[in-house]
Specification:
The complex is a heterodimer. Helix content of chain A is about 75%, strand content about 5%. Chain A contains eleven helices and two strands. A two-stranded antiparallel ribbon of chain A has the order 1-2. In chain A, a hairpin with a 2-residue loop joins strand 1 and strand 2. Chain A starts with a helix and ends with a helix. Chain B is an alpha/beta fold. In chain B, the strands form three sheets. Chain B has a six-stranded mixed sheet, with helices on both faces. Chain B has a four-stranded antiparallel sheet with strand order 2-1-4-5, with helices on one face. Chain B is elongated. The mean pLDDT of chain B is about 90. Classes of the chains: A mainly alpha, B alpha/beta. The interface between A and B is medium-sized, with 34 and 36 residues.
Chain lengths: ~270, ~300
């Protein structure tokens, strides 16, 4: 039998087809296009409400926040946090709740995997779509923040890239959650136990330095802390080399989450 | 087209498929008939590259499926029991998007989608949501989807389970037409009528093993004879009738309240001496074959 030959052939090359990833991405794009008016409304309005309430409402009470050498208006401080925080929510939601629906409720993954799409490609297609959603919300809220005068530097355009990376990181994380969650109740826990604390304690709404001393290292370890830090530096033009550590964190976390998600999905589906 | 030898599937300590061997010829419709838990779905999932082969050989269209499951998926179409249709996109998009998974471009995928919509009589429903389709239409759409990639082999796992009789007939008609187009089909079923109508050849499976193989006619002739007798005991006569049948040395099984008696040497059983029961004869079918092989009916749970 030609088995040994076939095994060698399979092992000799990395079996990865970009078109598999593209197929999954196009499926999401097709679904999105069908309801884009409603989707876009959600993408735009929610962060805009938060931004308006926090920046202009609470901002009036807070005044200025110390940042770098000087101080900035609270609204300017908080805008990048809300932009990136929303990127996180969208990627997380798409790749955990959305992925779980496709995986368990509608069993679409079974159909996709019965076509010549590998698990690695399926997972990357999911995460890439999560990052696409993150990019959409980042662009929309960034545009609003710019129009509202909350962006002080042209470097802020780089926040789009940070939004995408945030999407990749939390897309991978969300997919891990979807792969191990037995029920949707467990996924709800991901939002309340992970999403919410990250959204509030990652230097999004107040500087990490205001936390008690013991809590600060924890805040620095949080994944959302790093894209928020970079986005804020880009929005205010306060760039420095130390930000590269945060960038490294983002890239490494994305590269770690993705293969873990692939592995867990394989274990769940390909039995 | 398909060659399986000593194929085994284990889940933990449970053996779902216990060393089965069979061959499927190019262009034929091949059936796997057996009750739930016979190992049919596990076998089809291994053939579809969705489930790793535990042991044995499996070759599909010249490809070693144990080592190259993805190359197999390039050339086959799969219809699973649960339709796995995509409720977030329209009926037609379910087909075009499936083409994308195979790497078809937008134009080709769209053209193929329209072709199969036409063939499966779903043309008017292209813009509808999958959720608005009836069960029969959903099944037809999931079969249609398997044809978007123009597969050489189509794998159908219980294509009519859960459908009402009218929808089932409709699916049968369409599968019969597809058969004429020359595509090779492997299907599982626990409906003996379905196997008898559609399959050129089939294997009968139970508890992970193959109990018999051949064309429906061959199997019936060899295992059940041309005709079987149905003996329906009168009230309170069951034990009496059973004793008479045993004493006469008949080859028989009991299903529900009826004794099914097989003949021998191609002759129907002579039951003129049996008293206390109504006797009638009917043509033997695959259910009788299964009964002969296992002592149980196909639908015993």
């Amino acid at each position: 039998m030609n088995e040994s030959l076939a095994v060698r052939r399979e092992a000799g090359r990395i079996d990865f087809r970009f078109r598999g990833v593209a197929g999954v991405w196009l499926r999401h794009y097709t679904a999105f296009k069908g309801g884009w008016m409603i989707e876009m409304t959600g993408i735009l309005l929610e962060p805009v409400f938060i931004l308006a309430a926090v920046a202009f409402g609470i901002g009036k009470l807070v005044g200025e926040v110390e940042l770098g050498d000087g101080g900035v208006k609270y609204a300017v401080f908080v805008a990048p946090g809300i932009i990136v925080g929303n990127a996180m929510w969208h990627a997380l939601f798409e790749c955990s709740w959305g992925a779980f629906r496709r995986l368990q409720t509608n069993r679409i993954y079974d159909s996709i995997l019965a076509a010549p799409v590998s698990m690695r490609e399926l997972a990357l297609g999911e995460i890439t779509w999560g990052a696409t959603r993150a990019l959409m919300t980042t662009a929309a809220v960034l545009a609003f923040a710019t129009a509202a005068g909350l962006v002080e530097s042209p470097w802020a355009i780089g926040i789009l890239a940070i939004g995408v990376l945030t999407g990749f990181m939390f897309g991978g994380f969300g997919l891990i959650a979807a792969a191990i969650a037995p029920t949707t109740h467990m996924l709800t826990l991901v939002f309340t136990m992970v999403g919410t604390p990250l959204f509030f304690f990652s230097g999004t709404f107040f500087p990490i330095g205001t936390l008690p001393g013991w809590a600060q290292p924890f805040a620095w370890a949080l994944p959302l802390t790093h894209p928020v830090r970079i986005a804020r530096a880009l929005a205010t033009g306060d760039l420095h080399l130390g930000l590269l550590w945060s960038l490294l964190y983002l890239v490494v976390a994305s590269l770690v989450f993705y293969p873990i998600a692939t592995h867990l999905l394989r274990r769940r589906l390909l039995v | 087209m398909v060659r399986a030898a000593g194929l085994v599937k284990k889940f933990g300590g449970i053996t779902a498929v216990d060393g089965i061997s069979f061959e499927v010829r190019r262009g034929e419709t091949f059936g796997m008939l057996g009750p739930n838990g016979a190992g049919k779905t596990s076998t089809l999932r291994m053939m579809s590259g969705l489930s790793p082969v535990t042991a044995g050989e499996l070759e599909i269209d010249g490809i070693d499926a144990t080592a190259n499951p993805r190359s197999v998926r390039d050339v086959i179409g799969v219809v699973s029991q649960h339709d796995g249709l995509d409720p977030d996109i329209s009926v037609r998009d379910n087909l075009t998007v499936y083409g994308f998974y195979f790497g078809l471009n937008r134009e080709t995928a769209g053209r193929r989608a329209d072709e199969v919509l036409e063939f499966f009589d779903l043309k008017t429903r292209g813009g509808d949501s999958v959720d608005d389709l009836s069960g029969g239409m959903r099944r037809r759409l999931s079969i249609a989807r398997a044809f978007v990639s123009r597969p050489r082999l189509v794998i159908l796992d219980e294509p009519t389970t859960g459908l009402d009789p009218a929808s089932r007939n409709r699916v049968w008609e369409q599968l019969a037409v597809l058969k004429k187009s020359g595509v090779t089909v492997v299907m599982s079923t626990h409906y003996m009528e379905e196997a008898a109508i559609l399959c050129d050849r089939l294997i009968i499976m139970d508890e992970g093993r193959v109990l018999g193989a051949g064309s429906p006619d061959e199997l019936i002739r060899a295992r059940a004879g041309a005709e079987v007798a149905q003996v329906r005991p009168d009230d309170g006569q069951r034990d009496n009738v059973q004793r008479q049948l045993i004493e006469a040395g008949h080859d028989m099984s009991e299903i529900g309240a009826i004794f099914v008696v097989r003949g021998s040497n191609g002759q129907r059983a002579d039951l003129s001496n049996i008293s206390g029961a109504r006797v009638s004869y009917r043509a033997a079918n695959l259910e009788d074959v299964f009964l002969t092989l296992t002592g149980r009916g196909l639908r015993d749970e």
